[in-house]
Amino acid sequence: MADSAKSKKKVKGRVIVITGDGKGKTTSALGTAFRALGHGHKVCVIQFVKGKGSYGERIMAEQFENLDWFICGKGFLFNKEKLDEDKKVAEEGFEMARKKVESDEYDLIILDEITYLPTYNFLDVERIVDLIKNRPERLSVILTGRGAHDKLIDLADTVSVIEPHKHAFENGVKAQKGVEF
Ligand code: ATP
Ligand code: MG
Description:
By secondary structure, the protein is of the alpha/beta class. It contains seven helices and six strands. The chain has one domain (12-153): 3-Layer(aba) Sandwich (Rossmann fold). A six-stranded parallel sheet has the order 3-2-4-5-1-6, sandwiched between helices.
């Protein structure tokens, strides 16, 4: 194909799911963000599970003009008695994701730890599926988190399941700055 014809070809975004119990889901998604930023693409990260502490990646994110980073609400309680509170947080996070997807401002959106929303019945999986199916054509989306729902797996173009073989944590090694956070 001639160069001019190539450049006219519309970019079609990809749906990637990174799941499984091994370490490397969020960092893999962020590796792709780094790659996209290098090409001048605009990237958005929405984190659905709020972790305590100063994550190196969040600090670094402030240095990239083309990277917008959001943390969803107050965080989940994962307590059966307080399901309504978690549903409210999920709803707020999903609403933000919807706005960002529909804005057509981004080339890549990372929905970090979103798999837990349908797993814990905080949000119907069909709503995530509909949002992704109806996204702007050029937009790529990466979904991370353990135990991805079959409907998310079916929807994706690329799925990686990271399997843990061993993790230092099992030998009593604590989470380390610059490696785990
Ligand atoms: P990372 O952010 O390092 O890519 P992850 O996204 O695959 O990890 P999560 O399930 O989101 O993993 O884990 C949250 C935290 O627990 C991270 O600090 C991660 O490094 C660490 N972690 C991941 N997998 C394991 C494991 N099998 N055992 C212990 N800790 C883990
Ligand atoms: Mg993660």
